[in-house]
Amino acid sequence: MGDHGNFAYGGVQRSYSFGFFHADMIPNELAAALCPNMACEQVMFQNNPDSDGDIVLGSLARLAATGTGFILQPGEWSGWIPVNNLNLIAHLDAADSTLNYMLIRSSA
C-alpha cells in the first residue's frame, strides 16, 4: 500500500521539536475564567483523575452565558490544541476539580 504520510499535514510526514515545555495546574474556578497568560504553540489539558466533577473548556463569553463547551470528565485529556496563548481558552470547574495542562512552544 505504501506510506501516504500524515494527512493532517497535507499528506507529508513531518517531525517537530519544540524548545520549551511547561506543565502545571490551574486553580479551581467555580465561575468561568480565562487560563493564565502564557505564550504557547500547542496546549493539552487534563481533568485530574482525582477530581470530583467535570471541567468545561471554551470561550469566556460562551461559558459565562451558558456553561457549555468542551467537557472533560475526571481523568480525560483534551489532545493537543494549536493556540498561541493559553489565555485564549476559558475554563469552568466543578467543585474540587483540578485542571492540569502541558504546553509547548519554540523557545523560552
Please tell me about this protein's structure:
This protein has 108 residues and is mainly beta. The protein has a single domain (19-105), classed as Sandwich (Jelly Rolls). It has one helix at 60-66, and strands at residues 20-26, 33-34, 42-47, 55-58, 70-72, 81-82, 90-93, 99-105. A four-stranded antiparallel beta sheet has the order 1-8-3-6, with no helix packed on it. Strands 2-7-4-5 form a four-stranded antiparallel beta sheet, covered by helices on one side. The model is unreliable at 1-6 (pLDDT under 50).
Strand content: 25-35%
Total strand segments: 8
Nearest-angstrom radius of gyration? 16 Å
In percent, how helical is the residue content?
A: under 10%
Order of helices and strands: EEEEHEEEE
Strand order of the largest sheet: 1-8-3-6
Main beta sheet: 4 strands, antiparallel
Secondary structure layout:
Layout: E1 20-26, E2 33-34, E3 42-47, E4 55-58, H1 60-66, E5 70-72, E6 81-82, E7 90-93, E8 99-105
Antiparallel strand pairs: 1-8, 2-7, 3-6, 3-8, 4-5, 4-7
